[in-house]
Amino acid sequence: MPSTPSAKKALRKSQVRRLRNRSRRSSLRTLLRKFRESLESNDAATIGPVWKSVVKRLDQEAARGMLHKNTASRGKKRLAKRIPSDVWKQIHAKSA
């Protein structure tokens, strides 16, 4: 157990950060699972909105320092490659 006041404060801060990071990591994994499930349905109406939220969340976590920016970029690229080309065209035709 910490004995100095600064060590006690550091422990409190690390516990808060741990819970916050745990929650963010869990919600990111849940979102990725929803994306994989929408890919199985192969419906552009469900893939499009989930894809946009996944990209947004990966960028947010990279900005917060939860993920390195290259890790987030690599994840987006790998997920994008799993989207069928016809669905990909539908998603980007709506946003253009």
Reported for the largest beta sheet, the result is: none
Low-confidence stretches: none
Structural class, by secondary structure, is: mainly alpha
Beta-strand residue percentage: under 5%
- The string of secondary-structure elements, in order, is HHHH
- What proportion of the residues is helical, as a percent range? over 70%
Count of alpha and pi helical runs: 4
Distance between the termini: 57 Å
Instruction: Output mean pLDDT.
Output: 93
Instruction: Please give the number of β-strands.
Output: 0
Please give the radius of gyration in angstroms.
18 Å
- Shape estimate: elongated
What does this structure look like?
By secondary structure, this protein is an all-alpha fold. The chain has a domain at 30-95. 85% of the residues lie in helices and 0% in strands. It is built from 4 helices and no strands. It has helices at residues 5-41, 44-64, 69-81, 85-95. α1 (5-41) runs antiparallel to α2, α2 (44-64) packs antiparallel against α3 and α2 crosses α4 (85-95). The N and C termini lie far apart (57 Å). The mean pLDDT is 93.
